[in-house]
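Please, structure for the following, as tokens.
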Amino acid sequence: MLQALAGILIVFFLPGYMMVNMLFPRRNELDPEYDVVYRSALGMGLSVVIAIIIGFSLNAISSEDQGYVSAGPLWTVFLAVTALFFAVGWYRGAYPSLGLLHPALLRRAPPRRVPGVKPSDLKVKRASGKLVLERERLMEDLKVFGARSATSNPQRRLYYQRRMELVREQVKGINAQLDESDEEAS
């Protein structure tokens, strides 16, 4: 029973799953929500294709006096192919959890590349997005401070007017930074 389960796992799942991890090392690269399902399904399909290729290859290199393909060479090739896919996948960063075993085993997946966009451009866009969000938050604060400054208490009115002046200065600084980043991008 255990031998049959191991055989099914080695022939119909592991080689393809390791190949999918080798080709797509980042988590959630295939699908943000159902990544494990996609990896498993692709792994099973690719394992069948790999099994067929291995069977045909071993049959092509065997001679008639040696007999057809036997269990020993099949197990050896399946395990070697699976180990090769695992090693390349590890090298590409598909298994960051191995870093829990030993820090030397930790490899990170390469950063996601967008075709036609330099990584420095992405950093500028990300920084610009943060600045825009900060400016929107400050504009909301201005509205709140404006409403709170409309009071009959002179100390409170003065306090919120000063806060509004500080926020306006921060907004001017953010606008200047956004203008500089726009000039750098163009």
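The first helix runs from residue 2 to 12. The chain is about 70% helix and 0% strand.
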